[in-house]
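Supplementary Methods S3. Input chains for the assembly prediction are listed below.
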Amino acid sequence: MRLIDVAHARSGDKGDSVNIGLIALDRSDYPLLVKEVTAERVAHHFAGVCLGEVKRYELPNLGALNFILTSALGGGGTTSLRVDAQGKAMGEALLFMEIDV
Amino acid sequence: MNTVRIANGQAFWGDSPAAPVAQVRGGDIDYLTLDYLAEITMSVLRKQYERDPDAGYARDFVDLMSEIMEECLKRDIKVVANAGGVNPQGCAQALLDVAASKGISGLRVGVVTGDDIMAQLDDLESEGVPLQNLDTGTSFDEVRDRIASANAYLGAEPIARALADGANVVITGRCTDPGLVLGPLVHEFGWQWDDWNLLAAGTVAGHTIECGAQASGGNFQGGWRTMDDLAHVGYPIVEVSADGTFVVTKHPGTGGAVTTATVTEQLLYELGDPATYLSPEVTADFTALQVQEVGPDRVEVTGARGRPPTDSLKVSMAYSDGFQGAAMITYAWPDAIAKAELADSVLRTRLKDLGLPLRAIRTDLVGYNSVHGRVVPPAGSDQSEVVLRVSIWADDPDTVSRFAAEIAPLVMGPPGFTGLLAGGRMRPSRVMAYWPTLVPKSVVDPQVIVRDGV
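Predicted C-alpha cells for the full assembly:
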C-alpha cells in the first residue's frame, strides 16, 4: 500500500528547507503513520533530493506528522533552478512511499 | 462584541483581485486583512522607490481600495494590509488622494513604520550584532556590500496601537502575517500582552487564514476533486471569541469548502517545530490544538497555548546574487526523450567549448521527471512529447545572454525542434536572494502615525 491510500499532505518552503505536513485521512490510521513513516524512511525516500537531514514532529492532536527536510530545494526559493523551486509538490511525492500494513 | 469576524482577501501579491472584493460584498465582516509581501518583494519595491520616491508600495492595494473604500467605511469594515512595502507613508498618501478625489470622508489611515533597518546595518555591525544567516550560519561579510533591503518583522502591537488611535485602515511595511489578525483581536478584546494563550490563539487564527483560500479548498491535496466551484472559491474568515476560540468559515454561496481536512492542511503549512511557532509577541504551541466541524463550512479551532516570546526579531534581507535564465524546447515522438537528451548534450558541449563561467546548470525533462525526479519514477519512456528545460545561473548577465544565443542553433541538432516554448530569446533575470537573520528587539522601534482624510 502507498501512503496516498491513508494520508494527505501539504508542503511548503522555508529557505532551502521544505516542510511536509502528513495527515491521516482517517484518524485511526495515525498510529500507522507514526510507526511506518519514520524520519529515516523519509530521508531514504528523498535520497538525492534532501541533501541535509529529516526531522519529524508528532501532532497526535491533529492526526498528523510534520517533517522538515533541510537542503532540499537546490538553494531555496528565489535562487533554485528547480522546476518546483518551493517544494509545492514534495508532499505528494511523499505519498508515493510504500508502507507495510 | 461577542465575536470578531476577520477575513483574508489576499495571500500574496498577485493573488486574485476579485477575492478581497468578494470578502467585503459577500456578507458581514469586521476586518479585511491583505498580505502583499513575499520574502524578496521588499528589494523590488526598494528599487522602485529609488527611481521614484512616490513608489515602493503595493500599487494594487490602492487600486483595490479605490473600489472598496467607500463601502468599507460605510459598513465599518477595517482594513489591515502590509501593502506599505518600503514606503508606507507614500501608500497612505495614495489612499488619502483616492478618498479626496472621490469625495469620500472619514478615512483615517494608520501608518506603521520602523521595520526598515537598512540604515542601521552599520551601527548594528559595530555594536556586534552578528547578522549571520539564520539558516546556514554564513557570515554577513559574504553579502554585506550586496544587500538591497533589510526589514525586521514587526508584530501585532503597532497594528493594535494604530487601531486604538482610531485608524480604520492600517498600512504596514514588513510585518508577520499572523500579526495582521492578532493586532485587531488585541484591540477589540483588550487582550493583554502577557495573555500568552490568547495571543497564541490569535496567532493561530492568523496563520490559518494568512494564505487565503489554502484554508478553504485551494491547493487542497486531501480531496481537490471534491471541491465545488473553485473558480469562485471562498476565501477564509475567522470568527474569533474573546476566549481565543475561533471558527474558520467562508461566505455562503462561494466555492471550495472549509472542513477539518482543509484547515488541518493549512495549520501544517510552512510549519517548523509545532511546539515553537515564533512571533514577536508570543511563542505559540500547536500541539494541543483541537479542530472540529461545528456546521457546514464551519470548523472550530481550540487549544492554542502560548509562552513568552524570544528577545529577537526576525529580519528579512535581500541581496543581489547573479543572473539566471532558462530555455525550453519541446521534442515529440518518436524518441522524444532521447532527442531532448541529445540536444542537451550538444548544448553542454558547446557551453564547455565556450568556457562560460557558470555557477550552476540544470537540465530537466518537463512532462517526464522534472518535479518528482527519481522519487516517483516515470511510468515509461515512449513519450508523445517532452519539454527540454535547461537553466543556468551565472554572476553576470552577459554569460546568460551568451548561453541564450546557443539555444536557437539547436534546430540543427536532433530533429523536431518545435520552437522556443517561452517565445523569443530569453533575457537574463537578476536573482535576489534571501538572507534571514535575527536582531535584538531593543534595536527596532515601531512607530505609528494616524493620518486623517477629509
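The CA atoms of residues 10 and 42 of chain A lie 15 Å apart. Chain A has a mean pLDDT of 96.
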